[in-house]
């Protein structure tokens, strides 16, 4: 009977804490020490002195590559496998990602893990590392991998990444919509014709957490970003901020027609594709 109660409590914990792919500091604190849970603190270029106890720090350079002259592209499958194996992460591990950058770093890794078919659950700490600190939970020096693994990735899922050709096609096809997640200034200086502008910051509150499902639903519905479109293709400069918007659409609103444009503005501008100026 005690084992049954414990099992039901565990199921309830996961059902409540990970709804929408988000997890609270309190719930993360309860599961972070489980052997099949990995916490990754994704920072841009500097390892912090303190983080969540047991968390391993990863830097953006681990996942960013230059391809065909375009910087910031996702790393190849084989390099991803090597990285995950080096970190000791198993295919079925639950991965919780935290960052300090508007959750865009965390969602970039969430996208990569899903792109290469990670079998375990992938969650984002809502409110970033600041939410953990505000909760008064302990901090500690970053951990290092305690083992290695033999991680096996799948080929990149074409349903999760948009191509330059698809983005160009959206200019004439109203059922394929490019979502511009950049700043207003960036958009004014040049944007993809027929694209819809919703800056990534619109997805989160002043305290750095995602807005409610109702608020996000209204935000995107009012701009014509709906579930019945053939494809929604978020982009920014190098496909980092765009994943934060993609997470809102996929994990919180339940869309299944969203493809991150990995080449983003760096690729689009480089090939001298059609550009419109102003808002």
Automatic annotation (TrEMBL):
GO terms for molecular function: thiosulfate-cyanide sulfurtransferase activity. PROSITE patterns: RHODANESE_2 (PS00683), RHODANESE_3 (PS50206). Keywords: Plasmid, Repeat, Signal, Transferase. Gene3D superfamilies: Rhodanese-like domain. CDD domains: TST_Repeat_1 (cd01448), TST_Repeat_2 (cd01449). Residues 1-19 form the signal peptide. The keyword Transferase applies. Residues 33-141, 172-277 form the Rhodanese domain. This is Sulfurtransferase. The lineage of its organism: Bacteria, Fusobacteriati, Fusobacteriota, Fusobacteriia, Fusobacteriales.
